[in-house]
Write a structure and sequence with these properties.
Length: 173
């Protein structure tokens, strides 16, 4: 199997003869951490319970919405007894999209039947390809499209490769 540099060199030479890069689509997923809870902060004395309040102007799903204690400094003449609550395991979601000369396909959020966020496995990836990606491609005038993906396990599973070859033939990178 050719290494990545050799593949890139061969594709660059081929693109000079047949400008196929405008027909190439690449897709990948990313695991995103987000805040789905209410931020809490209060000023209290040691003997008092902390009061819960939402921080104004923030939506409930703000990316990276937690206070980093290493970067947070509070200056006061007296100890303000600040309380900031952050979850031990913040909620995460996996989002996929594809890029090509015609624009962006996606985003696609991986969720289970109950609507809860899930990570990607081979079955979920193939379901996304079948139920989302291929129908989206059919909405565009795409001929002889090449598809590029990385070597993640769900991308390289035999069933996934067979599915992608049914759609893209040998135009799979």
């Amino acid at each position: 199997m050719m290494d990545r540099i050799s593949i890139c060199e061969a594709l660059a030479k081929r693109n000079e003869i047949d400008p196929f890069l405008k027909r190439m689509v690449t897709g990948d997923e990313k695991w995103v951490t987000y805040d789905s809870s209410v931020r809490k902060r209060s000023w209290s004395k040691r003997s008092e319970a902390a009061e819960t309040m939402a921080k104004p102007g923030l939506t409930s799903r703000k990316l990276n919405g937690y206070v980093n204690k290493q970067n947070c400094r509070i200056w006061s003449e007296a100890n303000p007894q600040v309380y900031v609550e952050t979850p031990l395991h913040p909620e995460k979601l996996t989002v996929w999209c594809a890029l090509w000369a015609g624009g962006i396909i996606g985003p696609y959020f991986f969720k289970n039947d109950e609507g809860h966020n899930v990570t990607v496995n081979g079955d979920r990836y193939r379901a996304m390809i079948t139920n989302f990606f291929i129908p989206e491609l059919n909405n565009h005038d795409v001929q002889e499209l090449w598809f590029q993906q990385d070597g993640a396990t769900c991308h390289t599973a035999r069933a996934t490769i067979d599915l992608l070859k049914d759609t893209f033939g040998d135009r799979l990178i």
